[in-house]
Amino acid sequence: MSSFAERSLAEHYRGKRIVITGASSGIGKDLALLFSAWGAHLALTARRRELLDEVKVEAETAEGCGEVLVTAADVRDSAAMQAMADDVLARWGHVDLVIGNAGIGGLNPATCFDLEIHRRTLEINCLGLANTLVPYIPSMLARREGHLVGVSSLAAFRGRPRAASYSSAKAQQGVFLESLRMDLRPHGIAVSAIHPGFVVTPMTEHTDFNMPFMVDVRKSSLLIARALKRRAPRYLYPWQMRWLVRAEGLLPCRVYDWLLPRVSGQREDLKPRTL
Predict the structure, then answer these.
(1) pLDDT score at 1
(2) Contact between 94 and 143 (Cβ < 8 Å)
């Protein structure tokens, strides 16, 4: 991305009031650091308070950084997420952008399917996203302005081998966001679904399967920031994976079922676990 493009993004986000969940590591942390460097005000949340405090300290070292608020909360706790929204809105009056980024990945082979992992994956990724976004809708409706964002995955578009829990959760996120988008667009509120491929984060620090076209986390943040600036309803990246996913969508089930397990690079001894 050119320096001119980055300056344009910085100007767009300067002074914006932004909420980010899952901000203690990975994509959420890097987005927080990028937006802080551009002069945004941040309300950050994650379960691990000590890591959030480290992000806050790092964000506040950026020249021109706005206010940084941190709240330790589990996105599965609807009362805690509502309380956070109430506190943020009481302090700021409104928020411009809410990014529901908190989530978990994982493997759950059907041959040894773990219902507890399935429940946890759905609760964090699906209910957690709703608990994140919904509390801000009334204030955005009142202002007829705002932007709600969910970070899903390219795994949302077809089931991946040994990933029934993760793929179905990400598919639900995408459909949830699409319905919100149709309902809220007439009221001036944008809704975006972000579908990353593989990004260099703690979640991808394993060798359980192939991860082609891996993207550096800062490049990922810049791509997301650019997509949100133009209020893209849906954004898939990187471009190589976007086209692969679109091509997969054209495959008949018989071909897809034969091909995907063979190209995924998964070990045969995989057991259910979260990532």
Answers:
(1) 62
(2) yes
Identify the bridge partners of residue 149 per DSSP, sorted by sequence position.
99, 192
Known catalytic residues? 166
Q: Which amino acid is at 139?
A: S
Tell me: cis bond preceding 238? Omega within 30 of 0 counts. Answer: yes
SS3 42: strand
User: pTM of the prediction?
Assistant: 0.94
Local structure of 250: helix, strand or coil = coil
* Per-residue model confidence as pLDDT tens digits over 20-73: 999 999 999 999 999 999 999 999 999 999 999 999 999 999 888 899 999 999
Distance, CA of 111 to CA of 196 (rounded, Å): 28
**Predicted local distance difference test score (pLDDT) of residue 237:** 96
> What structural domains and CATH numbers belong to the chain?
3-274 (3.40.50.720)
For the chain, the straight-line distance linking the first and the last C-alpha, in angstroms and rounded, comes to 30
Copy the structure tokens of residue 124: 């964090």
* CA–CA gap between residue 207 and residue 209 (Å, rounded): 6
Instruction: Find out whether 146 and 95 touch, Cβ atoms under 8 Å.
Output: yes
Contact 263, 159 (CB under 8 A): no
